[in-house]
Amino acid sequence: MPSYIAGIYISHNQGMEAIVAASTLATLGVSIVRQNKLLKSATSEAGNPTAHPESLLGKLVTPIHALTLLAVPASYLVAVLSNSFHQPEWYTDLGGLPLELDLKVGIGGKAWIRTGAALASIPMAYIQSWIFKTLGKQMHFISPREKGEIVSTGPYAYVRHPGYTLALTQVIFWAPAFWSWIPLVGAGVCLVAFGVKIPIEEKLIEDDPALGPQYQEYKRKVPYRLIPFVW
Where are the transmembrane segments (predicted)? Predict the structure, then answer.
């Protein structure tokens, strides 16, 4: 149903895209600010990284998943913000969900699904805050720090890499929010990247003389990488 805001005509579809775009922008903004702030404080409190991946794959895997996590929402935002809060034809042709699904769920059902998926970013933001607060000064993309410590409390008591779990969850929820399968491709890329990165990251920690034995004990206590009781 169309409406007017400040005398400006807003269609149902425009209102839907505005909600999704606003939640996506807020999610990205908050995440980037938090991460940058934590990285700076971690360097000042726990020192610089002590080791880095030596292989080309080890050096590339973090940029690959980071760019994917940025490209998926950025492509949606560029599409709708440059087209008056309508998904342009090129975006729907590239990754739009089947029309049969629209017909099956109906206009109201689609609106509820997209709104719910978009607003799921709110509890995810709180979970991210929990993860970052628990990790604290040990924050880094792949390497242990000079004053390294093993973090095993909070979300790290359930899986060893909860930040990656949350990132995958967010990308998957973007699929119904954007009404596109593009985020699912991004989730696949990230899953492969995390599968490659985790052994590299954990080996850097285990090779540290001070942290290695502690981390091996932590792995015995928390055997799951990303998904509790699964993997």
Answer: 171-196
Provide CB contacts within 8 A for 157, sequence distance 6+: 222
- What does the pLDDT read at residue 139? 86
Nearest to 96 by CA among 16, 17, 176, 22: 176
Residue pLDDT, tens place only, 13-45: 888 999 999 999 999 999 999 888 888 888 888
The residue to which tokens 């909600």 are assigned: 19
- The verdict on domain 3-221 having CATH code 1.20.120.1630 is yes
Beta strand spans in the chain (E): 3-5, 8-10
Q: Give domain limits for the chain.
A: 3-221
Burial class (CB in 10 A: 0-12, 13-18, 19+), 79: buried
What per-residue string of b and e applies to 155-192 under the rule 16 or more CB within 10 Å gives b?
A: bbeebbbbbbbbbbebbbbbbbbbbbebbeebbebbbe
Tokens (6 digits) for 156: 């790290």
Contact 194, 41 (CB under 8 A): no
Length of the chain counted residue by residue: 231
